[in-house]
Amino acid sequence: MPTVRPGQPAQVTVELENRPYSVFVGEGLLPRCGELVRGVAAIRSRKAAVVTDSNVAPLYAETVLASLREAGVEATLVTVPAGEASKSMEETTRVCREMLRAGLDRKSFAVALGGGVVGDLAGFAAAIFQRGIPCVQIPTTVVSQVDSSVGGKTGVNTPEGKNLLGAFHQPVLVLADTGTLATLPDREWNEGFAEIIKHAAIRDASLLDLAEDPAASRERLAELVTRNVAIKAAVVEEDERETSGVRALLNFGHTIGHGIEAAGGYGRFLHGEAISLGLVAAVRLSCELAGLAQEEGDRLVAALKAYGLPTRLPEDVPVDAILETMRRDKKFEEGQIRFVLLERLGSAFVSEAVTPERLEAAARELRG
Ligand SMILES: NC(=O)c1ccc[n+]([C@@H]2O[C@H](COP(=O)([O-])OP(=O)(O)OC[C@H]3O[C@@H](n4cnc5c(N)ncnc54)[C@H](O)[C@@H]3O)[C@@H](O)[C@H]2O)c1
Ligand SMILES: [Zn+2]
Fold first, then answer.
1. Which of 1, 94, 144, 273 has its CA 20 to 30 A from that of 234?
2. pLDDT surpasses 60 at 333
3. DSSP state letters, 251-305
4. Is 254 tagged catalytic?
5. What are the backbone dihedrals phi and psi of residue 42, each rounded to the nearest 5 degrees, phi first?
């Protein structure tokens, strides 16, 4: 269980063999990042690149750079345009080349300061830069604090699809400063709750007591983020490279959700919004095929609604396009659909009982 002391950041350790790392969660971590970075054994150089995006840079880059400077770290700032389009090979190359021109070498380290886009991009750049340098993740969105900054999945998109190029590259340290979430726009705040509600659904029913109440979530933000990090960490510890099936449980709601995200044309829905719809469909399939109690299913859907997340598919998103993208999803291994279902709140499993016909019906039922 995470260590929590009043007034202190909480600390969760991701216990990976040979290279455990700490995730600190709390307010006011940004100005302490230099000191915390200096405490990491894997960091052996005082030269770094802070990678961020054009929205986050004016808000938080100076605090991070100043703290690093104070700790004796010479850091160069690399800013990419905000938005999913920056998760590309072109931008990865540009970031790496800026790092080379700034004189970083194989002993240097990278700091990813921003949401999941920056985390995935900078993490990937760190994975390939001079065959791999340490990466510190400083996530600044709900999604990145509760999900993407922990676990080591990094990568970029191609026109053929999302996250198709990438590497496993675990961070050496994660600093989730919950104070940074104060500047997050409402829509981005809300979408993060799709992943939080997903975590509660697959792994910790008691988390839903807190997560389903938007006012409590704001008041007890550090606790909320810490509990989510602990869930993600436990899953990653059990199945670091998604081979045993445990990590696949994190895909709950994502099969149909990804189809909706692509069918809407990226930009129509935020990831969490598409996942909200995917969760609604997966909850219905769980009631139908896995014995999930109707009240528990209803409670999950109500929790999504409490954050203004969509639970009905808008008319202008064609179901056929959703089905088409789902057929191309990498999880459709050799025609066999491995679909995550819930048997009850807090307990998920991978099922092979979901036929393409049932999946299609579930997508169509999202119309309302
Ligand atoms: N690696 C993983 O395991 C994993 C898991 C989930 C999602 N992801 C990836 O994460 C990405 C989505 O991440 P995201 O939702 O954080 O999106 P994002 O990084 O695009 O951030 C959302 C928006 O908020 C802005 N922003 C970030 N922090 C801010 C702050 N504190 N104040 C004000 N504005 C801020 C950003 O500039 C951006 O415009 C996707 O590319 C997805 O594939 C990866
Ligand atoms: Zn997701």
1. 273
2. no
3. GTTHHHHHHHHHHT-TTSS-HHHHHHHHHHHHHHHHHHHS---HHHHHHHHHHHH
4. yes
5. -70, -15
34 pocket-lining for ligand 1 (C-beta < 6 Å): no
d(CA 196, CA 205): 11
> Which whole number is the average pLDDT over 147-153?
97
Cβ–ligand 1 distance for 117 under 6 Å, the answer yes
Tokens of 316: 């202008």
Q: What is the pTM of this model?
A: 0.95
Measured over the CA atoms of residue 135, residue 168, residue 329 and residue 352, the dihedral's sign is: negative
Give the C-alpha separation, 337 to 193, whole Å: 26
Provide the 10 A C-beta neighbour count for residue 265.
10
- Could you confirm whether 232 is annotated as catalytic? yes
Kindly tell me the burial class for residue 333, based on how many C-beta atoms sit within 10 Å of its own C-beta (0-12, 13-18, 19 or more). exposed
Does 169 participate in catalysis according to the annotation?
A: no
Q: Where are the beta strands (DSSP E) in the chain?
A: 10-14, 21-26, 47-53, 74-80, 109-114, 135-139, 153-158, 161-168, 173-177, 339-344, 347-351
